[in-house]
Design brief:
GO molecular function: glycosyltransferase activity; transferase activity, transferring alkyl or aryl (other than methyl) groups
Number of helices: 14
Radius of gyration: 21 Å
CATH superfamily of the largest domain: UbiA prenyltransferase
Number of domains: 2
InterPro entries: Prenyltransferase (IPR039653), UbiA_prenyltransferase (IPR000537), UbiA_sf (IPR044878)
Subcellular location: Membrane
Order of helices and strands: HHHHHHHHHHHHHH
CATH class of the largest domain: Mainly Alpha
GO biological process, one term: glycolipid biosynthetic process
Strand content: under 5%
Number of strands: 0
Distance between the termini: 70 Å
CATH topology of the largest domain: Tetracycline Repressor, domain 2
Keywords: Glycosyltransferase, Membrane, Transferase, Transmembrane, Transmembrane helix
Structural class: mainly alpha
Shape: globular
């Protein structure tokens, strides 16, 4: 009995570990974009920590958690739909469902539980239901339209993924009922396109002639085409962010727009990412890349600290 109980316990522990892995907690870093609403809103930073205490900040953290729950549910559904295709991929075949280490039924149940937790949390954070509406839109677009249809439509497959970043920023604004500059949304969209194009390029170069067998949509792309798109988006990001920094209503404008000091960090981070894509063949997992490449991670961290310092120590 003891031996059988130990085997069952070990099996349950392994299943739990594989489930957590399938939920892709490393990709939760994408959800930090919900906090962008604070830095680039039309309201001062310290207004979010007033006499009532840190409640607004806690709501932002709650919004981050809600997006993490919803995103993990979408990852589970996406892996279940692509289980056969992932088995033909040199890296994705090691994923829990594709490798057979995790039962599909466990994934279905877990995805349902995650959604069932995310939606009530969204309503509790914002009874006006604005944030709930954003989260529902995110699930419908990313979890259903993309998974079952748009990921097989050329160009739209990249654009739809990019909208996920925009919805995160909008969700962060909705949960606090604040307005954010439209330039920030454009920056989010362009950054997401930048990462998405880099990921498609990595898949093409990794799979080479077998790319279409893994994912039919890859047959519609070529490396030269993606390189052209990358060039356009790279220049657009730098210009859009520069305008965002110059015009941000929350930042001091005298004697000059103070947020312009953050532009060099953005340029370095973009160029560093291009270096990793073109010289080191990276880019397949942007969320992991930013965590393991210390120059890239440092540039992002310094950018964030500089933005925070400008907003806190230079009154508008």
């Amino acid at each position: 009995m003891n031996k059988a109980s130990n085997i069952a316990a070990a099996s349950n522990s392994n299943a739990a570990q594989e489930l957590v892995r399938a939920m892709r907690p490393r990709q939760w870093v994408k959800n930090v974009f919900v906090f962008a609403a604070i830095a680039f809103s039309e309201d001062r930073l310290w207004q979010f920590w007033g006499p009532a205490g840190p409640a607004p900040i806690l709501r932002m953290i709650g919004a981050f958690i809600a997006f993490c729950l919803a995103a993990s549910a979408i990852y589970l559904v996406n892996d279940l739909v692509d289980i056969e295709k992932d088995r033909a991929h040199p890296k994705k075949r090691h994923r829990p469902f594709a490798s057979g280490r995790l039962s599909p039924s466990v994934g279905i149940i877990a995805a349902g539980i995650l959604i069932a937790c995310a939606m009530p949390l969204a309503f509790a954070l914002d009874p006006s239901m604005a944030f709930l509406g954003v989260l529902v839109t995110y699930v419908l677009v990313q979890g259903f339209l993309y998974t079952y249809w748009l990921k097989n439509v050329v160009i739209f497959d990249i654009l739809v993924l990019a909208t996920g970043f925009v919805l995160r920023a909008v969700g962060g604004a909705a949960v606090l009922a604040i307005h954010i500059t439209p330039w920030l949304l454009l920056c989010m969209l362009l950054l997401a396109l930048f990462l998405g194009i880099g990921k498609r390029r990595h898949e093409l170069t990794l799979l080479e002639q077998g790319a279409g067998e893994h994912r039919l949509i890859l047959q519609e792309y070529s490396v030269p085409m993606l390189d052209q798109m990358m060039s356009i988006v790279t220049a657009s990001i730098i210009m859009a962010y520069s305008i965002t920094a110059f015009l941000a209503p929350v930042a001091p404008q005298e004697p000059y727009p103070m947020l312009m000091v953050t532009i060099p960090f953005v340029i370095y981070a973009i160029f560093r990412y291009l270096y990793l894509i073109y010289q080191r063949g990276e880019g397949g997992a942007p969320d992991e890349l930013i965590l393991k490449d210390w120059p890239l991670a440092t540039s992002v961290l310094v950018w964030g600290l500089t933005v925070l310092g400008v907003l806190l120590f230079f009154p508008n």
